[in-house]
Amino acid sequence: MAVPSVTVSVEPVIENKIQEVKLDGQEIYVAPLSMSENLTKLAHKIDFYKDESDEKGKPTSEGEKEEEDEKVLASFQPSLWPWDSVRNKLKAAFTEMCVLTDVLNIIKEKRYMVADPVSNEAPENKSSVLLLAKKRGLVVAANVLISGAERLKRSHSEHSNRAQNDYFIELLKLRQNWRLKKVGTSILGDLTYKSAGSRFLQSGTFEVTKVIEEKTDGDGSHSRGSLEVVIPSELEGVAYIQVDVKSVPGNILMPAGLGVIRSDAYWQQKLEVAQNVLFCKELFAQLAREAVQIKSSTPHMVVGNQIITNAFPGIQLSIVLCHYTGKEKKTPQAPQKLEHNHVLEHSLHQLLREVHYKNINYVPPHPVNAMLGMSKRRRLAGPLGTSRRELVEMNVRETLLEQIIKQTKHAVLRLRTMHVLDKLAILSDPQITAHWSCLNSSLECSVRINITTAGYEIVRSNSLVLIIEVDNIQAILLKDSKTITLSFEDKALQDLILWQVSQHHIQVVTHLAKCHSWTVISTNLNVGIGDIDVYGTATSIMMSSPRGDKVLSLKSGAYNKIQMFLKEVTSSELNNLSTAVVDPKWQKIMGTFKQIDVDRLQGKTFAQKVDMLMAKLSTMS
Amino acid sequence: MENTFSVGLKHNIAPHQEFLLQGSILDSHKEVLLHRLRGLCDNAEKAPEPFYDHEMVFMLRGATAQQNPVLFRVRRSVEPRDDTSWHIRYLGTSEVGDKSRHTLVRACFDVACSNNVVQFLNEMGFKLDHEYCVKGYFFHKGRMKVTVSKIFRMAPSGGSDINTQEAMSHSHLVELSVVAPAGQEQIADDMKNFAEQLKPLIQLEKVDQKRLSVQ
Question: Which of A30, A255, A402, A495 could form a disulfide with A19 if both were Cys (CB 3.0 to 4.6 A apart)?
Fold first, then answer.
C-alpha cells in the first residue's frame, strides 16, 4: 500500500482527570495520586471528632457527595468507610484463609479429599537435564583421560619397538658422515670424492634401506643396526694398490687377496671399504692413462691390472690394483707373502688427494675482480712481463706416474746408500759413523759421514756429506769443499769412502808426527809412482825421527794395503864410513828402505800401530 | 655502434662475457648468509676469505657529446697488500629485455696491470669519475664467484684507512658472477639454480643498470 493509512491509535480510557487543556490542544492530566497521597486524602475524609452514631455527617471534604449514599448503606460502621476497600479485602483474605484451613483439615482426614503430589514431573525433568549435564561432563573427562592414555601407550610402544627407533638414529648418524639425498621414496647416498675435487666419472651411489627384523636375532658380536646400505656391484669387495720394487724382473705375482668384508658388517665399514675401492680404481685408472700417454725414456707396460716400469736399469717398479670381490674361485696355491711398499702406496694415495685438492682450491684473487683459478705467479705474469718460456714452464705439471717413479728412485738410492754404509761400518779401523739428517722429503735426504779412529778422535777433518737426490748422489768433501756427483751404482760410493779412509790414515799419521815431534819430510796426495790404484789416488808421507836417523815412509791407497818403509842407518854401515865424510850429518842420507809388515806390528788400529812404532823408534838408539 | 665483441676480437683481446646476479642483505642478517654460503660453496672447512679492495672508475669522454663515455674500472687490493698487480676491467653494455636469460650478460675485458696505471690513464686523457672501497668476503663454487661486500665512501683526505670511511648503506651487496668465454649459455641456468638455494634469505636477480644510472 503506497498510500500511508491513517493512524488509528488505540488508547485506554483516560483514568486521569484533565486538569487543563492548552491552547494547542494538548491536555494536561492531573497526576494520579500515589499511595501515600491517596491514604492522606482518605484519612482527611475521616472525621475523628464525630462518633458513629452521628449520621448527619457534614461533608468533611469537598467533592465527596457521592459517598454520602454509601454512608447511608453502611451506617453501622461510618468510621470505616474510607477503609472499606481495605476491610473488604481483608475479609476476602480471611475467607480465603478459612477455606484453606477447612480444605487442609478435610485433606488431613483423608476421607473426602486426598492431596496427591503433583510435582512428580518437575523433578523428573530436572534429573534428566542433570543427567545430560553429568553425562557431558563425564564424556569430556573421559576424552582427556583416553588421549593421555593413548600418548602413553604410543610412547611405550615406541620404546618397545627398538627397530623403528634405531632406524632413525642410525639414519641421523649416517647423515652426519655421508651425503644423502632423497629421491622419490628412496634415499640415495654418494660415495665418490666429487665434493673433494675428484673428476673421476664412475658413479658411487649407494642406497639406504630399512631392515625389519625380529629382536630375537642374537648376533651379538657386533652391533646390528636396523639400517642397511646397498653398495653398487662394481664397488663390492676389498681393493688396495700394491707397489713393489724388485731388483730382478720376476714373474707377475697374482695377489691372493686380502679378505672379504662381511655382508652383515656395520654400514660405516661397508661404505668406507667401498669408497676405498673407488679411490683405488681412480688411482689406477689415472696411472694407467698416464703410463700409456706420456712419452719417456723408459717405456711403461700396462698389463691388465698391473703397471710395470723401470726405475733404474735393473730395478723394476710394479703397481698392481688388487680387487678381491669374494666371488672368485679359491686358487689352490698357498697365499704368498706379499711384498708391500707401504711408504710408496701411501705416497700414491697422498698424490691423488693432492690432485683433488688442487682441483677444488683456487687461490683467491686479490682484487676479487681478477680471474679465478690462476696461481699468484700467473697473475703477476702480466704486470711483470714474463716471457713465453717462463709461462710454458709455469704450466708444466708433473703426472702422477712421474712423481711416483721419482719417489721410487730416491727410495732405492737411499736404501742402497744405507747398505753400503752398513757394509763399510763393519770395518773397525777406522770407524765410519753416519748421521742421517732428520729433515728430509720424499725426494731428497742427506747424511753426514765421519771417519775417525778410536782413541784418536781429534783427527776428524775427513768428513763428507752425501745429499741423496732422485737420480744421483752429491758428495761434498768437507776438507776442501769439493763436490763430486756419484751415479746410482753403489760401487761408486764405496770407492769414494774407501778412498777417504785411506786419506784419513795418512792424516792420522801426520798428527802423530806432530805429537812425537817427528819431522814430516814430504806428503803427497796423489802419488804418481808405484802400482796404480784401482780407484782414486794414493797418498804418501815421509817423515824422519827427531834425531833424524830414522825415516819412515807410508803409502796408502783405496784398495791397496798400506805399505810402510823404514830407513835406518845400521851400525855396520856406520863403521864403513869413508873418511871423505867430515860432518856427521851426512850419515843421515845413508841406508836403504826396508818394508815393514804392518800386520805384525802391535796395536789394534793402524794409528795405534804407527804410534807404537814411532815411539819405539824414537827411544831406540 | 659496433659490437664490443667484434671490436675486441679484432684487437686480439679474449672476448669474455660476465654473467651477473645481484642482491642485497641487511647488515643484521649478514652472518646467516655467510654461514649458508660457507656450506654451499667449495672449501667449507676454511674460514671465508676476507678482501678489501679500492676501486677507481675512470671515464673518457668521446669526441662528441652524444657518444657514451668509456668507463675503465681500476681495482687494487688494499688488504692483503698487493702493489704489483692492479686490475683494469672494461664492462660493455648489457642486453636487457631478453626474458629467457636469467642473468645479466655483458662483455667483459680483464687486464692485469702494474701500479702506475693511474698515471698512464691520466696521461691518456681519462678523468677520475668516482672511487670507492669495497670490503667483504669471497666464496667460490666451481667457477662461480660469490662476494658479500660493503661499499665505503672514500674519506676526503684520500686515505684508505678503514676507520675514516663511512659506509654508504646499512646493507651488504651480494654478487654472483661468472666470467666465461663468449657463447656458453648453460652457465646462466647453473647460476639460477644456485641462486634458488639462497632464496628466502636473499633474492638474487638481474638488475637493469641503465635504470639505475642517473643521466
Answer: A30
Residue with cell 592414555: A149
**Nearest-neighbour CA in chain B from A370: distance (Å):** 7
B43–A383 C-beta distance less than 8 A? no
Cell numbers that stand for A1 in this block = 500500500
- Cα distance between residue A413 and residue A80, in whole Å: 155
Strand, coil or helix: A457: coil
Cell readout for A304 is 691388465
By three-state DSSP, how is residue A93 classified? helix
Residue A63 pLDDT greater than 60, yes or no: no
Check the CA dihedral A454-A457-A459-A460 and report its sign: positive
- A67: burial class by Cβ within 10 Å (0-12, 13-18, 19+)? middle
Q: Is A214 helix (H, G, I), strand (E, B) or coil?
A: coil
Which string of DSSP letters, residue by residue, matches A243-288? EEEESS--PPPPP-------TTS-HHHHHHHHHHHHHHHHHHHHHH
- Angle between helices A606-619 and A490-516 in degrees, nearest 10: 20
- Checking DSSP bridges between strand A27-29 and strand A179-183, what pairing results, if any? unpaired
Give percent above pLDDT 90 in chain A. 20
Report yes or no: B29 and B101 within 8 Å, Cβ to Cβ.
Answer: no
What is the predicted pLDDT for the residue at A332? 41
Angle (deg, nearest 10), helices A400-424 and A490-516:
40
**CA-based max dimension of chain A:** 226
pLDDT in tens, A542-589: 998 888 788 999 998 888 888 899 988 777 777 777 777 777 777 777
The CA distance from A561 to A510, in Å, is 18
Choose among A365, A373, A383: nearest Cβ to B113: A383
Backbone angles phi, psi at A450, to 5 degrees: -110, 140
SS (H, E, C) A578-613: CCCCCCHHHHHHCCCEEEECHHHCCCCCHHHHHHHH
- Interface contact flag, A369 B43, Cβ < 8 Å: no
CB count within 10 Å of CB A281 equals 20
What are A84-129's pLDDT values in tens digits?
888 899 999 999 999 999 989 988 888 888 877 665 555 555 788 8
Taking a C-beta distance cutoff of 8 angstroms, is the pair B154, B132 a contact? yes
Q: Beta strand B16-26 with A473-477: parallel, antiparallel or unpaired?
A: unpaired
Say if residues A286 and A400 touch (Cβ distance below 8 Å).
yes
Contact B143 A372 (CB under 8 A): yes
Closest among A168, A208, A167, A203 to A187, alpha carbons compared: A208
Say if A13 is an interface residue toward chain B (CB within 8 Å).
no
Residue range A358-386: mean pLDDT, rounded: 82
Note whether B177 contacts A: Cβ–Cβ < 8 A.
no
- When pLDDT is cut at 50, 70 and 90, the band that residue B31 belongs to is very high
User: DSSP secondary structure string, chain B?
Assistant: ---HHHHHHHTT---EEEEEEEEEEEGGGHHHHHHHHHHHSS-TTSPPEEEEEEEEEEEE--SSSSSPPEEEEEEEEEETTEEEEEEEEEE-------TT--SEEEEEEEEEE-TTHHHHHHHHT-EEEEEEEEEEEEEEETTEEEEEEEEEEPPTT----GGG-EESSSEEEEEEEEEEETT--HHHHHHHHHHHHTTTT---B---HHHHS--
- Residue A618 CA to residue B176 CA, distance in Å, equals 94
In tens, the pLDDT along A417-429 reads 999 999 998 877 7
In the numeric block, which cell numbers belong to residue A283?
688411482
**Average pLDDT score over residue span B116-121:** 92
Which residues on chain A are in Cβ contact (under 8 Å) with B143? 372-373
Residue entry with cell 468533611: A60
Q: B85 and A360: CB-CB below 8 Å?
A: no
Chain B closest-CA separation from residue A190 CA (Å): 16
